[in-house]
Amino acid sequence: MKIGIDARAIHLQGIGRYIRELVRHLAKVDMSNQYIIYFSTPEYMNENKIDNPNFQCVLVPSKIYTVKEQLYLPYRLHKDKLDLFHSTTSLAIPLLRTCRHVITLHDLLLKIHPEFLPSKLSWAYFTITNWWAIKFADKIITISDFTLNEVSFFYPKSRPKITTIYNGVSAEFRPVKDKQVLENVKKKYGITNDYILYVGTYKENKNLPTLVKAYAQLPHQMRHSYYLVIVGKQSTRYPEVPALIKQLGIESTVICVNCVSEEDLPVFYSGATVFVFPSIYEGFGLPLIEAMACGTPVVASNQASIPEIAADAAILIDPLNVEGMSGVVYDVLSNPQLRKRLIEKGFERAKAFSWEKTARETMQLYCEGG
Fold it and tell me: What is the pTM of this model?
C-alpha cells in the first residue's frame, strides 16, 4: 500500500511532535508499506530525515491552511498514486478527494471556543474544512476518548469511523539526575533558584494568567525560594501574561523562556519542584506525560481530556479557582512526601503511553482499509 502523510505542520508545537514521532516510529515498525512524507520547506525536510528505504520525503509548495493547498495538494496526491492519505491535522485536508483519507482530529477547541479565532474569515474556513474532513474522511483518529465523545456528540454519524489512538511520550523524556547538567541548564537560562514549571503556549485555552495570579498569591518568602518558569514562545497576539506579571510586581521571580532546545526540555522538567498544567481545554496534553516521565510532580486542571490522561498521577484542580490553585501548589512545595507519591504515580502512568504503540495502532488502522 502507498501511504502519504502530511508533515507540513511539523513546525507547530504539540502537533509537530505528534507528526515527528509518528513518522519516526512508523519507519521502525513498518517495513511493508510505502510512504511519502510531505513537507512544506527544505529546512523541515532536511531536519527530519528518515532511515528507511520505503520512506520518501517530498517537498510541496503549499503551506497548511491556505487556498494554495486546496489547489496543489489534490494534484500531487493523484500524481503520486496514493492508496491512502493521512491528514495529521484535520483542517488541512484536501477538499478534492483523490484517494482514501484518514484524519487525526486532535481536539474540537475552535468549535467549543470560536471566540479564540482571530476573525470571521478564520471562523468560516475552520467551519467548512472541519465539517468536510469529518464528513468525508474514511477513518478518524482521536487522541483521547474525551475528543472521541465530543466529535460523536457534534457529528453523531461519524461515530463508527472514529478510533482513539493515544499519543506517546518520547524516550528522551526521562529523569536527568546529573546535578552539573541541571545547574548548567539553569545557568544558561538565568534561573538561580528552585522553580515551579509551566510548559506550553500563551493561547487562551492554556489559562496561563490564572497560574500567574495563583503564583502571586504564594507567600513572599516561598516566591523567592521558588521562581515561576514559563517555557513557551511568546506572541504579540497574547500580551496579557507579560502585562499581568508586571502589574502584580513579580517580575523578579518569574522567568519567561521563549525558546528551549529539544535537548534542554527534559532537563527543565527534571529540575522543577512541581509542574503545573492549568489548561481549560486539551485534546491530550503532552506536557503532562512528559513531566511525569521525567519524575516531576504534577498539578493539573480537572477539565477536558486532562483527568483521562493524568488519571490518579496528578493533583487535579479547578483551573479557574486562583486561591485553590495557589493552595495546592503551596501544599506540594511544602510536602516532600506528597511530591514523592506524585513522582511514583507519574512514572507508572507515563509507562502507559508509547509512540511505538501509537505507530503500530495507526499502521493497523491504515491496513484495515482506511
Answer: 0.93
